[in-house]
Design brief:
- The longest helix has 11 residues.
- The strands form 2 sheets. The protein has a 3-stranded antiparallel β-sheet with strand order 2-3-4. The chain has a two-stranded antiparallel sheet with strand order 1-5.
- Helix content is 22%, strand content 15%.
- It has one domain.
- By secondary structure, the protein is an alpha+beta fold.
- It is built from 3 helices and 5 strands, in the order E-E-E-E-H-H-E-H.
- The structure holds iron/sulfur cluster.
- The site of iron/sulfur cluster has 6 residues, from loops.
Length: 122
């Protein structure tokens, strides 16, 4: 017999779907101790109850927390909201530097320098 609680969720009951994200407990001692991050660079600090409600599809659509998750692309509403064009634009902006040339050049002309400039790797 299973000791773990098992929760079955009918597909119709889900009014939102999860988008890919990571989470990590930060051990800061604050109430919102869990950091959520998305592929597009968005982040949020949440507490245990909020993360549980998010993952069990228990969020109420009228709450500010739900709207925040929607705006930051942690969730989306199938049929009502297509987040992928916005996410693609965000991702393209974040990685735009890959199409630029180098922004900084460092020349190491000697490894025998007696100065201690803080920015120098010598
Ligand atoms: S420590 Fe300063 S002076 Fe020496 S090589 Fe680096 S930048 Fe030049």
């Amino acid at each position: 017999m299973w000791d773990l609680p098992v929760r079955l969720i009918a597909t119709d009951a889900k009014h939102y779907r999860l988008l890919p994200f990571r989470f990590m407990r930060m051990n800061t001692g604050h109430d919102r101790d869990i950091l959520l991050t998305s592929d597009t660079g968005e982040y949020m600090h949440v507490n245990d109850a909020q993360l549980r409600a998010l993952s069990y599809f228990d969020l109420q659509a009228s709450t500010p927390f739900y709207k925040d998750l929607l705006a930051r692309h942690f969730i989306y509403e199938p049929g009502r909201h297509d987040p992928f064009p916005e996410m693609a634009a965000q991702y393209r902006s974040r990685k735009d530097f890959l199409f630029q040339g180098p922004a900084l050049h460092l020349f190491v002309v000697t490894l025998r320098c007696n100065h201690t400039c803080q920015y120098c790797q010598v």
